[in-house]
Amino acid sequence: MGKTGVWILGDQLLANHPALQAAEAEAGQENVRVLLVQSAARTGKQPYHRRKLVLLFSAMRHYAENLRERGYDVTYLKTPTFAAGLRQFMREQQPERLFTMAASEWNGRSFQQHQLAQIVGIPITLLPNTQFLVSQFDPYPNHNPDKNVIMEYFYREMRRHFDVLLENGQPTGGEWNYDKENRKPLPKNMQLPDIPRFAPDAITQEVIDEVEAAGHGVGSLADFDLAVTRQQALAAFDDFLQYRLPNFGAYEDAMTQRHQTLFHSVLSPYLNLGLLEPMEIIQAAEMAYAAGDAPINSVEGFVRQILGWREYIYWQYWQQMPEIVEKNSWNAKRPLPTFFWDANTEMNCLHHVIERAIGTGYNHHIERLMVLCNFCLLAGIEPMAVNDWFLAHYIDAYEWVMLPNVLGMGLNADGGVTATKPYIASANYINKMGDYCGGCRFNHKLRHGEIACPFNFLYWNFLLQHEETLRANPRLGPNVLGLRYLADAERTAVCQQAKQFLAEEIGR
Ligand SMILES: Cc1cc2nc3c(=O)[nH]c(=O)nc-3n(C[C@H](O)[C@H](O)[C@H](O)COP(=O)(O)OP(=O)(O)OC[C@H]3O[C@@H](n4cnc5c(N)ncnc54)[C@H](O)[C@@H]3O)c2cc1C
User: With respect to CATH, is domain 4-130 assigned 3.40.50.620?
Assistant: First the structure.
């Protein structure tokens, strides 16, 4: 039996990789040759957060080490392109066929489907991607793109199919959704748990030195403390189950300047790399509920994020690609304000949130959605400029998750395909859900005037500019109805101030 190659992509670090299993079943472990490639072209395409680069490369190298310890012959290459790495592997190992698993992203998959066979010149087996549950069960297999799918119903179908949080076919606890019990602001003196930190070992330190020497990217590596192995990622998950899951639901939408992660899991970087898998996370959360360790509103809220939102976003990505990158339904054309790159703004919420993104590569969901994207939507920032900023700043950023979240959910640029209404809010929401406004120069109650919060005049300006379109959306009735209380003089004042602010901050 000749040699069989297995190409494992950097975000497919699965404990049981299907391509490896298939190759081994066919050729025997002694004939399997594994390849991991670090492509300079792929990671140099645009700036990325340095913590993300270290996380990715260190996790890949630890994964390769682990496979070697398990007896596999592994080649780890750093080459200018994937094609160069694949050709070098072919020359050195001379496998007779190649197994690989479908990439989660469009370009990667298209490379596997249309170029790979020609580059390697041997038969290839492209296996389906197993990192998402929706690849096993599609709730809308014959989806008509003219009809919108609602996340809530998508999620219920997923729960039914995978038998998650169900008792006799009915939702555990009697409700599908516990949103009413959740969405609470944080009590003032509530103790907030820190997340576990993992000290860099020799492999990680070597990667840190390489990324620092390369000199590109954003953010600092001073305190790199992320999990880089499955074992560490499982430890991070256990910590979440024990110390944060019980309060996850109640405070999942809360924001505070005194703590970065609150009761969030900070598991997205590990799920997106394959170090953790969605079903094991979901089942462990269900078990925590069954054991009485966490209430149903928290467990359902958390399961909804993984089995609902995460799967739905991946499904939307494949439904909407490649056209989604062109979408700009609000005709937003302004460039990103420069303070997105240095956090130098007097708006306290934006200052803190951007500073955290630059510093650590992490913001929790509501900061991403209701502070950053809310601002960009109200200010009319060009969608792909926002997308690129997000891609550059987050440790969990990958195209499949970024495009539908930023262009769809955050900016509503896809015409309401991902989310049925634009997530827009004035400073009132930011003040209700967080404590940023207390320390801010701007007044969250004023609609206009020298110290009025820009979220207010931008919000009312947006409603006025897009009144007709917004009125047509049944989910936005109450917001648009609010315009009735805005006298003519106020309308003029908010529009003028919005114009002036945008000209000063953005230049147009
Ligand atoms: C504008 C915008 C950009 C985003 N960019 C990313 C990104 O680049 N990478 C990323 O993984 N998530 C992204 N999200 C989704 C979500 O904000 C993050 O997954 C979450 O904040 C990660 O932190 P956590 O692990 O502590 O999440 P938790 O609050 O603990 O949630 C648990 C898990 O649910 C999943 N999840 C929840 N919401 C979503 C969602 N909307 N899309 C996909 N997964 C979800 C994640 O895997 C997350 O780890 C984005 C959301 C918005 C609105």
Answer: yes
